[in-house]
User: Fold this.
Amino acid sequence: MTTLNSKIPKGPIADKWTNHKNNIKLVNPANKRSIDVIVVGTGLAGGSAAATLAELGYNVKAFCYQDSPRRAHSIAAQGGINAAKNYQGDGDSTYRLFYDTVKGGDYRSREANVHRLAEVSTNIIDQCVAQGVPFARDYGGLLDNRSFGGVQVSRTFYAKGQTGQQLLLGCYSAMSRQIGKGKIKMYNRHEMMDVVVVDGKARGIIARNLVNGEIERHSAHAVVIASGGYGNVFFLSTNAMGSNVSAGWKVHKKGAYFANPCYTQIHPTCIPQHGDQQSKLTLMSESLRNDGRIWVPAKKEDAEAVRAGKLKPTDIKEEDRDYYLERRYPSFGNLVPRDVASRAAKERCDEGFGVGTNETGEAVYLDFSAAITRYGQEQANIQGLHDASAQKIQELGTDIIEKKYGNLFQMYEKITADNPYKTPMKIYPAVHYTMGGVWVDYDLMTTIPGCYAIGEANFSDHGANRLGASALMQGLADGYFVLPYTIGDYLADDIRTGPISTDLPEFDKAENSVKKSIDFFINNNGTKSVDHFHKRLGKVMWNKVGMARNEKGLKEAIAEIKEIREEFWKEVRVPGTADSMNPELEKAGRVADFLELGELFARDALEREESCGGHFREEHRTEEGEAVRDDENFTHVSAWEYKGEPSDAVLHKEALNYENIELKTRSYK
Amino acid sequence: MSAQKGLNLTLKVWRQKNDKENGQMETYQVSDISTDSSFLEMMDILNEQLIAEGKDPVAFDHDCREGICGSCSMYINGEAHGPGREITTCQLHMREFEDGQTIYIEPWRAKAFPVIKDLVVDRSAFDRVMAAGGFVSVNTSGNTQDANSIPIPKADADKAFDAATCIGCGACVASCKNASAMLFVSAKVSQFALLPQGQVEAAERVQNMVKVMDEEGFGNCSNTGACEVECPKGISLENIARMNREYLSASVSSQDS
Assistant:
């Protein structure tokens, strides 16, 4: 059995990464040319890793299921990317970014990894600016910053509400440069179906060409999984429709441990669900909380009248509004971390103060009227309009808000047909990002030698909750600055190996099992579509393994997911053939994996008898409804070993040692 | 949110098995479509219906469903991404349609974008244009100078950002009578032309990108502006003018090379 060795370097935290880099093995440039690396997924983590590995001289084969790496879901990240640059002179430092991230993650992340992330964060900004990423600038031509939840400094770099897009296009352009040179061979519209393990080492993958259905063998000296998160296990989430867990799940089935599956971030500011025909939820950037105030009616009768369409939000007087985040958390107010803001919204809606149109009333207001007035007044002063009318102030203020968040407001209006400049937005929490993932050591290697996991696909940096603007940071840190160093330590032993043959029996075996599974789907002739099962799974996950969990619900969920899974294998219907483009066949494989992951997810949540970050167990809370952590028994990573059925998975624990930051109750009051 | 209504619609959808066989329009009926649903959600409902009937569902590209990945590409009633300005198909909502309406749904039509299946086309020609120069040649393994050592006037940074917001969906090509890719290519050329980074390779960049654009079979620009009208991100024709200027100046200055 593999031992769970995190390989955290010795020495003071601030020196660990530097010392480690000085001591790991190097591969000389000539030898890199004879080493192949496979990268699965080309979002911020995979794209930046592929570009940098190619830049260093390795031969890279990159795979993505989309028609171009430019479409990876990192593109949809809106708000920004953190970096401890302290350009604002407001007291930021590597240590503070490290501290905020560890605290924000509810003390369930790995200190050494987080410190490294904070250290390299400044390089990311330099790197991206050098690539021509058009970050927001101030009038002096220098980079601008804003604030995000859980933080009291302005360290977030941004490009309007399209930061993820600009960073991804930056990394796609870096990839394009290497593709042009032939150093990256790009496989668009390809899906990894399995990993091939030879003599205990990851030596390649089986991929399906999604255009013609061909099953292909690809060998390499190392395999990097950069396939993102598994939030789509809930069916409705902010993830792209194609986002899936399959690559991570396949390596888990081949021996990689899967860590903390129950840590899922519920993002507080999404557009509420509108009905049963909906396929996906849309996020509204957290940056909106810099200026938007969150409230619900203070009186139940007002909330009822709003839900019935008899009152408009603008009819409710200031004194009849409950700005519950400002009331409960005066020092952070609307900028509390996402888990805290999400639970507070759920609590108000559960108590009957919600303003949604659906039967559960699930929505709260995100209101910009105060900000519009404040900015309008400021502009009037600047322009010397001392007797400006209320209407003029509104106009001036609206203009400022439009400059800051215009594209987000437009997006909201397109979806809801409501104008958020005039009436508050309705928002509600939704599944957004998964902090759990494939277990990796400090080098980002999984428990399969030669198999790495980076970005959202791994588990290490965010703990039980992710602060805003830190996912982009981790993706790019892993891809540009961490993996390219650490992978050399492993590959140095492979300089004499030569090309890996794809005729090995391990490739035959993996290919046969992939073909068998595809044949099953095509020939099963069941009665229900793939989506039918995915939606059922999603409902169980949201109702019983969602924002709040309890023992009873989790046990029920485990049993129900198992039932759905069994029915899926009997009744699923996949139309079409295997030798052509067949999106239903693609979905079937992914949903099969979600049906296994979902059960492990619920089991992990059941095992963790505490509330922390995105994991809220109703049995463990204070009288005011705040999460109660159990540091004595749960300061560890739960890493699951695959043994067949999810119920047979074996739990391993990696103790988390906090040597630099004292474990404290998280308070944002 | 607006009051929900159920729409009954007739859909005429382009069905094509693969790039070798000819395609044809097929007619389908869908009913009780919520006006709050997106156009792609309506397509999902159609597909569920087809699967239930034992038929092959309609293949179409989609992913983020929030207007940013650029995957969704369909011609709806003769317009790229359907009615409405500055939106992608996933952002198009059924409240824009009326009960009983007939909707024509076709793939992008351009020689450089061959049909793969039904509404799915191959846009990898865009990737090849990018690989010919759509980047700044900077080493990605670190050790770059401090970001604030390159001050950029806000107006330039904002313009560069506006050009950089192109999502590469191909609506510009699909809407152009010549199937020209000038708006797409010029957006990338403009982004770098407006920024100090990558200036040293500006001439080479524009020449290489234009060369590959032509080789890929995209047509020429005749300044009719359909691309700008149909662009979901409002990329301006100004970028084409900027690219032409860059190209001309590159051609003049590189005569002796």
